[in-house]
Amino acid sequence: MSSIALTLAVLALLREDVPHLVAGSIAAMVATFAIRENERVPQAVTLALGLPVALAAVSLSALLNSHRVAGDLFFVALIFSAVYGRRFGDRGTALGLIGFQVYFLSLFVGTTVQGLPGLYLTLVVAFGCAAVVRFALVPELPAKILDRLRAAFRARLAQLISAQLALLDAEPEDLPKVLDEVRRRTAALHETAMMIQARLDEGTSDESMARLVQRRIADAEITAERLGLLLLTARSAERADTITLHLPGAPVPSGRPLPMRDEATATLHRDLAALRLLVLRPVAQDTGTALSHMRNRLLGYREEDNLPPAPAAVQDVFRGIGEAARAVLGLRTALDGPQDESDDTPATARSREELDAEDASIGGSEEAARAEEEEPTGLQRPTTRAAVQVAVGSALAIVGGEFLSTQRWYWAVLTCWIVFINTASTGEILVKGSRRLVGTVLGVVAGIGLAGLVGHHTWTAFALVLLCIFAMFYTAPLTHTLMSFFVTAMLGLLYTLLHTYSASVLLLRIEETALGVVCGIVAAAVVLPIHTHRRTNELLATTLTRLADVTEGAVGQLSGGHAVDLLDRARELDQALADLRASTQPLVHPITPLRARRDTARYIVAMLETCAYHARSLAATAELLPHHPSISADPRLRGAGRRIVHNIETLATHLTDEETTAAVETGPSIASMLHPGTLRAPRYGRVTDRVLRHLQRLDEAVAGLARPLHVPVEAPRA
């Protein structure tokens, strides 16, 4: 918004007319939001290259304006090149987007050869203002962006603890609603953790610091999610299933309900509130105040002698609070630097010693290079396939759009272009297209109202345009329907500024949008189609492979094997799961008629989220070796984890090889596979017991995936 406002101010001082103001605002928006690199130098290079691309696009548009066939053919070629350019990374994507949007801009304002000099000046001003805002007025420094993400992580962690407080206090009839809020807050925290992961390399001073922050973020996320599970278990007479925190509508554990108005419950409520305060309060206020005493009390729950008298499940919640407090202490140290230790109790001092030992071990492990996956070539390459599809769809949109309007046919092309962005299957395009159409219809209604409201008040209209642009980009990550609504409402204002507004124009936009959606769906379904079932199977196999990597690495390290980079593996698993979740949107959409398939897709994703939670927990525990005083390797775990890895690999094989006859193995519990008499070792301690619980739940979840994936199960041998 700042670059658009500055562009409008400069053009107004130059006494440019309204069409040039409109063109400048759109060009500034494109020059600002097309740049996606994280570092300043690559951003500057891309922006500098974008200006000649923009000038070339507007020049060719003006020259070909009177040559209808040649102009249409060039537009299709430009669209193909813009989409194909995505294979060259962020810069190729940005330059392609700039070329397409500026060509579209020239069609929108009706550029002629005689008007090129004035439009050249407008583009130079727009790109210059975008550069000034980006690099001088509002610089997007990687370190500052990472700082904002860290603050967002703390805020979302505090929101999750608040939701867990509500879970503790909720009456039984309110429990499903409160659980939904816990699920949303847990997902939001995980999303922020992944955003931080993507920014660590550019936003931190060195690799060791990046790994330290990565570890502390992972610890905080895992302990917070585990605390929610322990609270849910404390509310019931049986151990809560992890899938309850991942699957909306999952059965809520029944049994002895909380809140029980006793001293232990009141203490839990107080300590959860203290944990939330510990997350939010600045480090500067952590000395000589009640906050340090609260911190010491919470960390004291890591010692068995400090646990208050309560049922075993409630005592587990206190232990979970102690572990969460330790994770928050490590997070505060990693993000804010050393803290005053004068008020430390012995329990707090031990926690600091453990954190220091873990910090010293960072950077000491190396992992052998992992085999790179074979890149597809030719028409199998995703960017090439998408470029061919969108080019064919755009050609259809041009032909159909000409029949609807010889002046504004380009709206159909724009819609066809947009429905292909960030989609990879026919189902995703169908869902995105339907959302865009609904948003456009609602936006037309709003546009008619706004156009009548502003009349001929130019600067009032521009102010509303800025608000629409802000709302458009603010809502884009949330829902394409709202984004389309604000885009269409903004167009009503722009047409008013260009004195070309009428209700029929906005109704034509609905028709052109519907045509663009249809052309996009037809192209995706007929030209080199990627069906939703095939796409989800590919991503599901990738997710299972990543899950096997994390599990095998974690179990190997916990059983005394060589150290590997488990947190990076865990984040690769998270990214694969996020891609799978996005690809299943067409299957779980409320309007889908295939109810059984929708429920199956939701169940599979929820089970995989459960598996990922346990795998992350195993990875985080394994990362503590060998410097944690209370954790040691147990060679017996290697055999216990072998069946899990085998079953995960079996599931993945069935998705990629229809001829395989491999079956999922079942058998005795994971804990019973550890023979107490071997190696002259005790059965297992608390930490190993926690590892076993994660392995047991992971084993059950993996076996539970066999039925919906139609994988045979091999009964245990007698």
Strand content: under 5%
Strand order, largest beta sheet: 1-2
- Average residue pLDDT: 81
Weakly predicted, low-confidence segments: 364-372, 677-685
Q: How much is the radius of gyration in Å?
A: 29 Å
Order of helices and strands: HHHHHHHHHHHHHHHHHHHHHHHHEHE
Q: How many beta-strand elements?
A: 2
Class by helix and strand content? mainly alpha
- Summarize the main sheet: 2 strands, parallel
The global form is globular
- Total helices: the number is 25
Terminal CA distance? 70 Å
Helix content: over 70%
Could you explain how this protein is built, in words?
With 718 residues, the chain is mostly helical. Helix content is 71%, strand content 1%. The chain has 25 helices and two strands. A two-stranded parallel ribbon has the order 1-2. Residues 364-372 and 677-685 have low confidence and may be disordered.
Name some characteristics of this structure.
25 helices; mainly alpha; 718 residues; two-stranded parallel sheet; single chain; 71% helix
Outline:
The chain is built from 25 helices and two strands. It has helices at residues 2-13, 18-33, 40-63, 68-84, 89-109, 116-137, 142-169, 175-203, 207-234, 263-280, 290-300, 312-336, 346-361, 382-404, 410-420, 426-454, 458-475, 480-497, 503-526, 532-558, 566-583, 585-588, 595-623, 637-656, 686-704, and strands spanning 664-665, 713-714.
